[in-house]
Design a protein that fits this description.
Chain B: Pfam families: Cytochrome_CBB3 (PF13442). The complex is a heterodimer of chains A (about 300) and B (about 300). Chain A is built from eight helices and 13 strands. Chain A has about 300 residues and is an alpha+beta fold. Chain A folds into two domains: about 45 residues, no CATH class; about 220 residues, Alpha-Beta Plaits (2-Layer Sandwich), CATH 3.30.70.20. In chain A, strands 12-11-10-3-13 form a five-stranded mixed β-sheet. In chain A, strands 1-2 form a two-stranded antiparallel ribbon. A two-stranded antiparallel ribbon of chain A has the order 4-5. The longest helix of chain A has about 40 residues. The termini of chain A are far apart. With about 300 residues, chain B is α+β, with helices and mostly antiparallel strands. Helix content of chain B is about 35%, strand content about 15%. In chain B, the strands form two sheets. In chain B, strands 1, 2, 3 and 6 form a four-stranded antiparallel β-sheet that branches. Chain B has a four-stranded antiparallel β-sheet with strand order 5-4-7-8. In chain B, strand 1 and strand 2 form a beta hairpin. The chains are: A alpha+beta (about 300), B alpha+beta (about 300). The interface between A and B is large, with 47 and 40 residues. Bound molecules: iron/sulfur cluster (2 copies).
Chain lengths: ~300, ~300
C-alpha cells in the first residue's frame, strides 16, 4: 500500500512538473512571437543565421518562427503506444560479425552512454572446449513474453504494440527488479551521473531514445524507436560495416540489411540459414534472431583478443 | 608532348606503387588460379546482373567503379575496382582474391556463388579500357528510339505482372525493346524487396512477365506498393512506374496489447491477477478492521460484564 501512495505523490509531482515545463515553453514562445510581431512593423530587417551545413545565410526577421518541440506528455504518450501495424524484428548474422564494434559506438552516441555502458555488446563466445569461437552482438531481445515488464512495480517498463520493450525513466524508481528478471542481461543501471549530464540537462526527455539518461534509473536497447518513427533503421544496424544486421517488419515478412540495403524475405532468411533465438527454452519469445556462425566471411584464427580480429 | 610524357610517368608510378602495395599486402595468387578465364560471356545481360550483385555486395566498401568513392578505411583503403591498375589483373586473379579475402576484405568463397562472382567480374571488365576481353557477340541491337514508354499490366487473378517497354523509331513506329532488364520491387518499411525472379528481361516484343510471390503479405486489403523500373538507368535514363496493386496476402496486424497478459502493464493485466490481488488486499484489510472492531468492542464488553 505504501508503494501505491508514494507512486501517487510521484505522479502528482510529475504532473506539476509537466505543467511548469509546458508553461515555460508557452512563455518563451510568446516572447519569440512577440519579437517576430514587433519586427513585422519595421521594414524588413535581416538577421544572419548559420545553417546546418555551415553556410551563413540572411533571413528576414519577420520570417523567424520558434522551433516546434513535442511536449513531454505527447512524447510519452506516443512512445507508450508505439507504431501501429508494425512488428519489428532483427536478424543477426553471426557468420559475418568480425568484432568491428561500430554498432556499439553508434549506439553509445545515440543514447548518450559512456564507453563502458552497453545497450548492445559484442560478446566473444566459445560454447564448449572443442567448438569454434565466434563473436555475438547482443542487444535487448525485445521478448514477446518479457520477464522484465512483469516485475516492474510502477509500470515504468512496458511493451508496445509494435513489439518494442521500452523504459520510461520519468517513472522508473530504480528498484532494479527488471535487471534481475532479464535472462539476457540486457539492462544497465545508471549508478552515477550519466555522460554529459550537464550538457543535456535542459533537453526534453525522449522516451523512444531514453535520452537524456538519468542517474538512478535503468536503460537498455530500444531498437532506436525514435529512428523507426522516421523510417530509418536502428543506429547499430546502419553502422555495421560488415552486413551483420537485418532489420524489418515481421508483418511485411521483410528485413533490410543495414550495410548493403538489400531487402529479403524474413521467413526465407531464417529458414534457409537455420536461424534461432537465444535461450528459447525460457519461453521469453525473443524478437532478435541469430544466424549460426557457419561459412564465415573471414578467417578466424581462434584468438579472441587478437587485434587482427578487430575489423 | 611534355604532358603526355608526364602522364605516362605518372601512370607508371601508380602502376609500380600499386604493385608494391599489392606485395606489401601479400596477395599471393597461385599461377593456376591466375590462368582461370571468366566462363561467362560479357553480354549486357551478364554485365547488368553483375552490376546488381556489385551494388549489394561490394559497393559499401569499394564505392562505384572509376569514381574512387571507396570507404576511407585505414591502414589500407579499398581499391577502386574500376581503375585500370586494378583491371590489369587476369580474371582468375580477381576471382581468387574475391574468394579468399584479406585483412578487412571478407572472403566471399562461400557467401557469393561462383556464377555471381563471375558476373561481377564481367561487370568490372566493362570498365577495362584495354578491353582484354572484347565485348561479346550476338547481342540484340535495339533500334534508336525516342519517347521510351513503360506500360504495366496487372493480373490479380493469377498474381502476375506484365511490363511492356517500347519506343518510337525515327520512322514513327512504336517497337518493343528487347533484352532490357527490369526490376519489380515491392516497397517494405526500410527498402524494396526484389520480386523480379530469375529472368526479368524483355523479349522480342518488349514484354516481360513475372510471377508475384503467392505468400507475400500486403496490408489489410492485400495491397502493396510496387515500383517497376528499368534496372539500369544507362539505357534509357530513369524509367519507372509506381503503383498500388492488390497482389499481397491480406494481413491483419496483430496487436499484442489486445490481449491481457502477465507481462502487460496494469491496464493489460490478466483478470485473475487483478481479482486475486484486489481480493487479497480486501481480505487483509477486512481482517485488520475486524480485529480493530473487536478491540473497540472489548471495553464495552468489560463494562457490560461489570
Ligand atoms: S531481453 Fe531482457 S530486457 Fe529485453 S525484453 Fe527480454 S527480458 Fe526484457
Ligand atoms: S528499475 Fe525501474 S524499470 Fe526496472 S523494475 Fe524497477 S522501476 Fe521498473
Amino acid at each position: 500500500m505504501k508503494e501505491e501512495t508514494s507512486n501517487h505523490s510521484r505522479r502528482k509531482f510529475l504532473k506539476s512538473f509537466g505543467i511548469s515545463v509546458g508553461a515555460a515553453g508557452v512563455v518563451s514562445s510568446f516572447s519569440l512571437i512577440g519579437a517576430a510581431k514587433a519586427a513585422a512593423k519595421k521594414p524588413a530587417e535581416m538577421v544572419n543565421l548559420l545553417t546546418q551545413d555551415g553556410q551563413l545565410v540572411q533571413v528576414d526577421k519577420n520570417q523567424l518562427r520558434p522551433t516546434v518541440t513535442e511536449p513531454l506528455d505527447e512524447l510519452q504518450k506516443r512512445g507508450r503506444e508505439g507504431i501501429p501495424g508494425k512488428s519489428f524484428v532483427m536478424v543477426i548474422d553471426l557468420s559475418k560479425c568480425r568484432n568491428a564494434r561500430k554498432c556499439m559506438d553508434a549506439c553509445q552516441n545515440h543514447h548518450q552512454l559512456r564507453q563502458d555502458q552497453h545497450h548492445i555488446n559484442v560478446l566473444q563466445m566459445q560454447d564448449a572446449e572443442h567448438t569454434a569461437p565466434y563473436f555475438m552482438p547482443k542487444p535487448c531481445q525485445h521478448c514477446d513474453n518479457p520477464p522484465c515488464t512483469k516485475v516492474c512495480p510502477v509500470d515504468a517498463t512496458f511493451k508496445r504494440q509494435d513489439g518494442i520493450v521500452l523504459i520510461d525513466n520519468e517513472r522508473c524508481i530504480g528498484c532494479r527488479f527488471c535487471i534481475a528478471a532479464c535472462p539476457y542481461s540486457a539492462r544497465i543501471f545508471q549508478w552515477t551521473e550519466p555522460k554529459d549530464a550537464e550538457k543535456y540537462k535542459d533537453l526534453t526527455y525522449n522516451i523512444e531514445a531514453n535520452v537524456p539518461q538519468k542517474k538512478g534509473t535503468v536503460s537498455k536497447c530500444l531498437f532506436s524507436a525514435d529512428r523507426l518513427r522516421e523510417d530509418k533503421l536502428p543506429s547499430c544496424v546502419s553502422a555495421c560495416p560488415n552486413g551483420v544486421y537485418y532489420f524489418g517488419d515481421q508483418n511485411e515478412d521483410a528485413v533490410t540489411n543495414g550495410t548493403t540495403g538489400e531487402t529479403v524475405r524474413f521467413s526465407k532468411l531464417i529458414e534457409d540459414n537455420a536461424g534461432y533465438t537465444l535461450m528459447e527454452e525460457l519461453g521469453t519469445k525473443p524478437r532478435v534472431y541469430y544466424l549460426p556462425p557457419k561459412n564465415r566471411a573471414f578467417e578466424f584464427n581462434g584468438d579472441l583478443l587478437n587485434e587482427e580480429n578487430l575489423h | 608532348m611534355k604532358n603526355t610524357m608526364k602522364n605516362i610517368a605518372a601512370l607508371f608510378l601508380i602502376f609500380v606503387f600499386s604493385g608494391s602495395m599489392a606485395n606489401a599486402q601479400g596477395w599471393t595468387v597461385p599461377a593456376s588460379a591466375k590462368k582461370k578465364q571468366n566462363p561467362y560471356e560479357a553480354t549486357s545481360k551478364n554485365i547488368s546482373s553483375g552490376k546488381k550483385i556489385y551494388n549489394i555486395q561490394c559497393k559499401s566498401c569499394h564505392g562505384d567503379p572509376t569514381m574512387a568513392n571507396m570507404l576511407p578505411l585505414a591502414p589500407v583503403a579499398p581499391t577502386d575496382l574500376g581503375a585500370q591498375n586494378f583491371l590489369v589483373q587476369s580474371d582468375g586473379e580477381i576471382f581468387y582474391k574475391v574468394n579468399k579475402g584479406q585483412g578487412a576484405m571478407p572472403a566471399f568463397e562461400k557467401t557469393i556463388s561462383d556464377e555471381d562472382k563471375w558476373m561481377v567480374i564481367a561487370f568490372l571488365r566493362s570498365f577495362d579500357k584495354n578491353k582484354k576481353v572484347k565485348q561479346q557477340v550476338a547481342e540484340v541491337k535495339n533500334p534508336e528510339v525516342t519517347d521510351v514508354k513503360l506500360e504495366l499490366n496487372v493480373n490479380e487473378e493469377d498474381k502476375t505482372m506484365l511490363a511492356k517497354l517500347s519506343g518510337l523509331t525515327d520512322k514513327g513506329k512504336r517497337v518493343g525493346l528487347q533484352g532490357i532488364e527490369m526490376s519489380f520491387l515491392v516497397k517494405r518499411s526500410f527498402g524494396y524487396l526484389d520480386v523480379s525472379g530469375e529472368d526479368p528481361y524483355t523479349n522480342e516484343t518488349g514484354d516481360v512477365q513475372i510471377q508475384f510471390p503467392v505468400d507475400l503479405p500486403g496490408d489489410r486489403e492485400g495491397q502493396v506498393n510496387m515500383l517497376v523500373k528499368v534496372t539500369d538507368d544507362a539505357f534509357y535514363g530513369k524509367l519507372e512506374e509506381a503503383r498500388v496493386v492488390t497482389l499481397g496476402v491480406p494481413t491483419d496486424p496483430v496487436n499484442p496489447l489486445d490481449e491481457r497478459a502477465m507481462w502487460g502493464t496494469r491496464a493489460n493485466a490478466p483478470i485473475w491477477i487483478i481479482v486475486t490481488f484486489v481480493g487479497g488486499v480486501l481480505a487483509i484489510w477486512s481482517v485488520i478492521f475486524m480485529v480493530l472492531f473487536q478491540m473497540i468492542k472489548l471495553p464495552k464488553l468489560a463494562k457490560s460484564k461489570d
